[in-house]
Design goal:
ABC transporter transmembrane region fold, 4 domains, 6-stranded mixed beta sheet, 30 helices
């Protein structure tokens, strides 16, 4: 690696830690990216660094991303290089550590060097720590602990990729990386350790790094508390994660234990039958080569009897093999089905931020389809092939030693190099498979979640060529990975095939000389050569098994990552929200909130508001981006506030389970979604057990008169865009009303409707308000909707700047509401 590249790497770490003097008071937000040694091999050192720098463009510095500040890759490189030239490595480390100490002390922690001053990177918090019990770190080592992490045990850490702290505090990605000797020596020199022997775990400052060639960048919100650990426990190392994934992979097969044991029993029968063929054929060859003399066969049977017996034996083997295939494939189908159900259920439980911004529906679909199938196949068909290869090779080698130990030893000379090659190829394939599956997920996300879901926009702007180019780039990336896999497979299988043929040729030459000297019969040599082919095929199958297992592990990482991910919005309580007992005033008490993807941009600041029980209706008014819809998102706990409380009848909203609270409230979004099915099924979406009478009553209240005019009425089949905007809004209102919610949220319910549709929807809203059975929170821009609310709250800059009744605010010439609504008021 060139010196410039090394400098860029070190400066990149410095940038991520928020230290560079060239950027004033940097504030780093969420970021997560993947770069491993294979990437470096594929695109070269320069390309690898550029990719890392490309990911830094999403970092927020003083409220703006580097991309928004106009910093391209070249600009960031220039900043990094200029800063590096002015700051030697030792100075970076010293300033880095000083900043860590300062940050810890500002968070209320007492930090000082440990008594053993051999390591300048070893610090400890002077407070009681459970690190030794939880992580195997002795008190002589530096320890990391944080009050928020007190419930995290080693098992939780072990499940987390790279040892990152699980959500909601951290969004993490493990990045196996490369270090030059210079970099390792630099760190080792300052830490007093040998290269590759230490490590550092920085919580709060968003960096986990060990000298054992791995680095993980994580995002932490809010930042508070910091310490460093010189020791990285074994459970946090990548090898431990791979072993854990392997254990989890085989744990999926437990429900199929009986089926798989039966299938393996049948496999033993069919394999034993198969391996009896070479020995039998060899004896028959000797029998006929000696003129069919009696006594040549090992037992006193005629050739006809032997032929009939072999036919029966082959039939048994065929039946056993057929049974094995049926059982294995049935077990595979059930494992894949269970895995897909569990993965889908986990995806539905995830927080909105993860599904809409991080993973995306396309990536989840890829994990459900391709990854789950690969995992299932690895556990059944591939495992069956592996066991079959072991059994066949074991029986074959035993019989080969029985026939000729000398020739068998010659054949075994090929095993060590082939085994090493298979191991190396399998590990390479695992990493390549992981990247391929990620590429497929990204490709699916681009198609399913963006272009195809917005096909009208694409066509309206004649952007099809642009989208084709975007998609082609993703496809080409996956194609390149597939070609790389094909080349690796060609080299590996070509080399092993050639080696096998050379060994067979050597066996034939040496075996022929043994036959000529009478040390082995023609039949035995024939049997041995057949066993050589069988054992060679088994070794090839075993190498394929190993490589497929590694491929399955690569796919399983993505599946298990989703299965084990704890949603950022945690189910903090199992207490059920009882409408008759628990519902009362809803109060936002000094709430502040920013989206996790934009932590530097506060949407709500010290926001306070009350909804006063049943029958109260509040309209929130403000400019776009003022936080109106965010208030509703917080009510549904799609997100949690950064500070402050949301109280229901005086109790914190977190006291109730998510499911019971959400089932008690309803929402009519700005762009309601209809699912494929009947109108009745869509109305009853949140209340599947509703009677037809209840469905029709909710539709009547929502002004869904058009349904009775359809030929099949409520049994009419519809899809996402089968109805007009106004009709979809009214179906959405009916869906919300059927739940009989204590609170109904209307989010711009009439913003995209024509005058007639708006009138019909507003009539439905009026009925709801007059019923006095539910509280209503209205987010709207149109006066026709706002004026129906009992109170109006004006939201500006994330704060409530004005509150009052509609007539009062309109009559006040200095009202902020009047200013916001001036254009509509003038039109009246």
């Amino acid at each position: 690696m060139s010196k410039t590249i090394e400098q860029r790497l070190l400066l990149l770490w410095q940038l991520l830690e928020g230290l560079p003097s060239t950027l004033p008071e940097p504030k780093v937000s969420s970021y997560s990216f993947h770069l491993d040694a294979e990437d470096v091999e594929d695109i070269g050192h320069e390309g690898a660094i550029n990719r890392m720098l490309e990911n830094t463009l999403g970092l927020r510095v003083n409220g703006l991303t580097l991309r928004e500040r106009g910093a391209g890759i070249a600009g960031v490189v220039k900043v990094l290089e200029e800063g590096m030239l002015q700051c030697p490595k030792s100075a970076i480390l010293e300033k880095w550590l000083n900043d860590l100490i300062a940050l810890s002390q500002s968070a209320g922690a007492v930090v000082k060097p440990v008594a053993n001053k051999e390591s300048v990177t070893s610090f400890t918090r002077m407070k009681e720590s459970t690190s030794e019990k939880r992580f195997g770190i002795t008190k002589a080592d530096s320890q990391w602990i944080d009050p928020r992490y007190i419930d995290i045990d080693e098992e939780t850490i072990d499940r987390s990729k790279g040892g990152a702290i699980p959500d909601p505090y951290v969004v993490a990605a493990t990045v196996p990386c490369y270090h030059t000797d210079d970099i390792e020596q630099a760190f080792a020199q300052d830490s007093g350790d040998a290269p590759g022997g230490g490590g550092a775990l920085l919580t709060g400052s968003t960096l986990f790094m060990s000298y054992s060639r791995s680095i993980s960048f994580t995002s932490h919100r809010p930042t508070a508390g910091l310490a460093i650990s010189k020791v990285v426990p074994a459970s946090l190392r990548p090898e431990a994660n791979q072993a854990a994934n392997l254990r989890q992979l085989f744990a999926l097969a437990k429900p199929e234990k009986t089926t798989l044991i039966t299938a393996f029993g049948l496999l033993l029968i069919s394999s034993s039958v198969t391996m009896s063929v070479p020995l039998t054929f060899g004896k028959l060859i000797d029998f006929f080569s000696h003129g069919a003399q009696p006594g040549t066969l090992p037992i006193s049977v005629t050739p006809t009897t032997a032929g009939v017996a072999l036919l029966g034996l082959f039939t048994v083997g065929a039946v056993a093999n057929a049974g094995r295939v049926i059982l294995m494939r049935s077990a595979s189908a059930r494992i894949v089905a269970r895995l897909r159900r569990a993965t889908y259920a986990s995806a539905l439980r995830q927080d909105i931020e993860f599904l809409e911004r991080s993973a995306g529906p396309g990536d989840v679909v890829s994990r459900l389809n391709a990854d789950a199938y690969i995992v299932g196949d690895s556990l059944t068909g591939n495992l069956s092939d592996g066991v079959r290869a072991v059994v066949t090779a074991s029986i074959g080698l035993s019989l080969m030693f029985y026939l000729s130990p000398t020739l068998t030893a010659l054949m075994l000379a090929i095993v060590p190099p082939v085994s090493l090659g298979a191991f190396a190829y399998g590990r390479y394939l695992k990493r390549l498979s992981n990247r391929t599956q990620e590429g497929l997920g990204d490709m699916t996300k681009v198609v399913a979640n963006e272009a195809l879901s917005a096909v009208r926009t694409v066509q309206a702007f004649t952007a099809a060529p642009h989208e084709e180019t975007r998609f082609a780039a993703k496809v080409n990336h996956v194609q390149d990975l597939a070609i790389k896999e094909a080349r690796a497979a060609a080299m590996f299988f070509g080399a092993t095939g050639w080696s096998g043929n050379v060994v067979v040729l050597g066996l034939l030459a040496y075996g022929g000389s043994l036959v000529s000297r009478g040390q082995i019969s023609v039949g035995d040599l024939t049997s041995l050569l057949m066993y050589t082919a069988y054992v060679g095929g088994s070794l090839s199958m075993l190498s394929s098994f190993f490589s497929s297992l590694m491929k399955g592990l690569g796919a399983s990482e993505r599946v298990f990552q989703l299965l084990q991910r704890e949603p950022a919005i945690r189910r903090t309580s199992e207490a059920t929200f009882d409408i008759s007992r628990d519902y009362g005033n809803i109060e936002f008490k000094r709430v502040s909130f920013s989206y996790p993807s934009r932590p530097g941009a506060e949407i709500l600041r010290d926001f306070s508001m009350k909804i006063k029980g049943k029958g109260d209706s509040v309209a929130i008014v403000g400019k776009s981006g003022s936080g109106k819809s965010s208030v509703q998102s917080l009510l549904f706990r799609f997100y949690d506030p950064d500070s402050g409380q949301i109280l229901v009848n005086g109790k914190d909203l977190h006291k109730y389970s998510l499911e019971s609270w959400r089932s008690a409230i309803g929402i009519v979004p700005q762009d309601p979604v209809l699912f494929t099915g009947t109108i009745a099924e869509n109305v009853a979406y949140g209340y599947p057990s509703a009677s037809q009478k209840d469905i029709e009553e909710a539709a009547r209240l929502a002004n869904c008169d058009f349904v009775w005019e359809l030929p099949d009425k409520f049994n009419t089949k519809i899809g996402r865009d089968s109805l007009s905007g106004g009709q979809r809004q009214r179906i959405a209102i009916a869906r919300a009303l059927l739940k009989k919610p204590v609170l109904l949220c209307l989010d711009e319910a009439t913003s995209a409707l024509d005058a007639l549709s708006e009138l019909r929807v507003n009539e439905a809203i009026e009925r709801i308000l007059q019923s006095q059975e539910t509280s209503t929170l209205i987010v709207a821009h149109r006066l026709s909707t706002i004026s129906r609310a009992g109170r109006i709250v004006v939201l500006e800059g994330g704060r409530v700047t004005e509150e009052g009744k509609y007539q009062e605010l309109v009559a006040d010439p200095n009202s902020r509401f009047r200013v916001l609504m001036s254009s509509q008021l003038e039109a009246l």
